[in-house]
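Lab notebook page, bench 4
Experiment: in silico fold of construct C2
Operator: M.H.
Input chain length: 185 residues
Purpose: comparison with the prior construct
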Amino acid sequence: MVNTDMLSRQPTELDYADPSKFKFTITKLPKVEFFTTNVLLPGVNLGDVIVPSPFKELPVQGTQLTFENLEIQFIVDEKLENYIELHQWLVGIGFPKSREQFRSFRSEQASAFPSIGDDRQMAGLYGDATLTITSSKNNPTVEVRFSDIYPVALSSLEFNQQATDVDYLTASCTFSYTLYELFTL
């Protein structure tokens, strides 16, 4: 039954969500995690099905969710270590020169992450990530857990001798994943 008492429907917390209060963790990319400056929480779409009718076509709720890609932005460190981490993951999955690249990547990942139990993750193809949203007092309030993520795009880096001010290099990475879930803490 829906509660119609207006006083009981008032919010108990009047603080707004601060977009700068978050921490992004990704098991496979510790150097990217530290320098992450921007995370775009993906949208989700249920969609609908149009049912034909002799009068007006009727929309009916869909049955399959479609998740947008996860996008992050990070500051590139001086030795490009965090950029290289992502680049190697992409090259390992895509093996542009030979199948040996893929086998080598899988064996390196299996030894680097021995505690991961899932066979797909053990193979180094997938990882997990968590976006922790914090309160104005930096206490965790919500965790967004992404399952089976993998990179699908890594941005370019622009080096420019004519820059008049120091703008540190930033890169963005786009990930696909199986599912994300929200957990209140």
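Observations: The chain has a mean pLDDT of 85. The two ends are 26 Å apart (CA to CA).
Next step: discuss at group meeting.
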